[in-house]
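Bench log. Compound arrived from synthesis this morning; before running ITC I wanted a structural hypothesis for how LLZGTKA7 sits in the protein. Inputs:
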Amino acid sequence: MNPFAPAAPIAHSASPVIVALDFPAEKDLLEFVARLEPGLCRLKIGKEIFTASGRHLVDKLTARGFDVFLDLKYHDIPNTVASACRVAADLGVWMVDMHASGGRRMMEAAREAVASLSQPPLLIGVTVLTSMSDAELAEIGLNDGAAAQVERLARLACDSGLDGVVCSALEAAQLKAALGESFRLVTPGIRLADAVADDQRRVMTPSAALQAGSDYLVIGRPITRAADPLATLAAIHAELGLA
Ligand SMILES: O=c1ccn([C@@H]2O[C@H](COP(=O)(O)O)[C@@H](O)[C@H]2O)c(=O)[nH]1
């Protein structure tokens, strides 16, 4: 169990924003997080900073009361992914993900691994990375286009007992219609109007994404690299009618 976990249940942020903390160094990340409050947003820890800092960083963020999305996109044999999800649950993370292309048995094993917990993390399947275009999918032998591949994997994730998927907001309306309101849609590839897309290919603005059915908006560089990150977050909340 996480010895730093708050004794009282944490108050979940009313904001759908999950800030992606893609920093190379823990010191810079913690300086950034010091300006945030758990009521303002949730936080995402990805491969870069987790490789550098590991579980103690997660402990520090959960101890401050933040909901943490551990975005390590597990993709391995069922036993390995199930065991990793169980360890993530013991860390006290709010959400953890795995590639849905790992298949039904892998996702079912992950669900089973956390089934006995009173407060299991949300288990989320990554469908098609938001950085990928239809042309890039064709290069790896997936010729149906992103929308069809996302729906195929989202249906499988849902059938396998997962709580939701990572997809682009471009597919959100289609997935809500196919899989229902309660199946959570976590959407990176969020960009403010007229902003650069960087390496993302399937993008939407915050308000369009929410309107399309996204439950959570994962936003990294547009906030973390802004001249005034807090003002940018406030502007996003204003665009969403949350200010
Ligand atoms: O399909 C995916 C899955 C995960 N991500 C992650 O989200 C953030 C997005 O950061 P930006 O700076 O806003 O582009 C990043 O941590 C990715 O690893 C994704 O973009 N797409």
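What the model suggests: Strands lie at 17-20, 42-45, 68-74, 95-99, 122-126, 164-166, 184-187, 216-219. Residues 1-10 have pLDDT under 50 and may be disordered.
ITC booked for Thursday regardless.
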